[in-house]
Amino acid sequence: MSTEQHDADAYGQELARISHHQHEATGARFMVFQALAAVGIGHEQADGVCTVNGGSSSRK
């Protein structure tokens, strides 16, 4: 196997791994939105909850 082929295979595997984790994160976020909606929390408010608890907010 050539170096170029090996690099392409490793790159493809990394992309597949990233895609898998993004898919899982999207599913988890959707599940959180459903649970919050079930207790009466709207999408706008739920988005704030997901952002703060997801660690992507700069607020501390």
Shape: rod-shaped
| Rounded mean pLDDT score | 80
Cα-to-Cα separation, first versus last residue: 50 Å
Discrete helix count:
2
User: Could you tell me the strand content as a percent range?
Assistant: under 5%
Roughly how many Å is the radius of gyration? 18 Å
Amount of helix: over 70%
Task: Walk me through what this model shows.
The chain has helices at 3-38, 43-53. By secondary structure, it is mainly alpha-helical. It is rod-shaped, with a radius of gyration of 18 Å. It starts with a helix and ends in a 7-residue tail after the last helix.
Layout of secondary structure:
Elements: H1 3-38, H2 43-53
Helix pairs in contact: 1-2
Structure at a glance:
The protein has two helices and no strands. It has 60 residues and is mostly helical. The model is unreliable at 56-60 (pLDDT under 50).
Task: Describe this protein with a few key phrases.
2 helices, 0% strand, disordered C terminus, 60 residues, mainly alpha, rod-shaped
